[in-house]
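hey can u check if this looks right to u? its 240 residues, i copy pasted from the old doc so theres a chance i mangled smth
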Amino acid sequence: MLDVGGLTKAYRQGEGIFDIHFQATSGTIVGIIGANGAGKTTLLRCIAGLLKPDAGSIEIAGNQPGTEAGKCLTAFVPDQPHLFPSLTVVEHIQFKAKAFGVPSDKLEESVGQALEAVGLSAYADRTSGSLSKGQKQKVMLASAYQHQAQLFVLDEPTNGLDIPSRQWLAKWLVDQKAKGKTILVSSHSLDFIKDVADSCLMLRKGKSQGVDQVPQAQDEKIAWGDQVIQRLGGAVQVHE
């Protein structure tokens, strides 16, 4: 589903990402772990087609980011939900659905399914500006869900979420994986990545520190987590 090769995006101050390589197959979750400023957001924005790389390649099921096919395959959820505060939840998702070309005769069904998928049916007529951070994040996920994207790209989705919302998000991501979706999720929380990811790309100062398979047994996860912290120089959080 996703093939990233030699990806580089540098900024004038010497920050960015440099020569990143990794792949993600359908029905898997790849965690992107690293401290603030490690390059997680830059990497994900390049994959989502929001930034143009300086070098390297990105293929999404054989398509380039930013092309019509690439856009239809990809759903990007930023770290801060960007909603129209005066629109209701249903109006916001309808707007997104139209932007992605959902036919008018399928609009009501598509939006209804998206609301149900994230547990927001009861909030359909609430204005987006009146929602909590977790509820706003669900609106963003519903917008991603309704256009049937195959690649979900989530940037620090746990920021500002309470424990029940983080638990709901973890389960939702695993459910989407079971449906064959490919998911990239960045975080500075190693615990969250250990809970949801199949593999993990580690970034430090814009450079890859390797891609590991995430162990399934709890004791193995703990030992692996200690190794990750050492490799990243202690620059990640174990708990949020």
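The first helix runs from residue 40 to 47.
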